[in-house]
Amino acid sequence: MLLIHSLLPNKTETVYGGYKMGLIIKLPILIILGLIIFTLVEGMYYMAKDDGAKDKTRVVKALTIRITLSLILFALLILGAFFGMIQPHGM
To answer: Residue 16: beta bridge partners?
Structure first.
């Protein structure tokens, strides 16, 4: 419910070029978060079930991909906040 509510248009969202910026920035963020979780599970699988006979660097490759995706996500969040696409709120 909270995920669906966050995708709905907000009255305070910035309109740029006729497109709602909230969905334009939130969709790639959600996709990258999903990919980060997938590579986390993939690395855990390689570490738990793989005996390392085929390729001993598969865990390291999964970790490298996850770190790269995390850095891309961090950059998207910073750029989104800088350009006003993501509005911070107080708690």
So the answer is: 19
Per DSSP, which regions of the chain are E strands? 15-16, 19-20
**15-16 and 19-20 as β-strands: parallel, antiparallel, unpaired?**
antiparallel
pLDDT of res. 18 = 42
Enter the pTM of the model: 0.70
Q: What's the average model confidence in pLDDT over 22-47? A: 91
Q: What count of other Cβ atoms lies within 10 Å of the Cβ of residue 80?
A: 19
The structure tokens 């910035």 sit at: 14
21 touches 85 (CB < 8 A) = yes
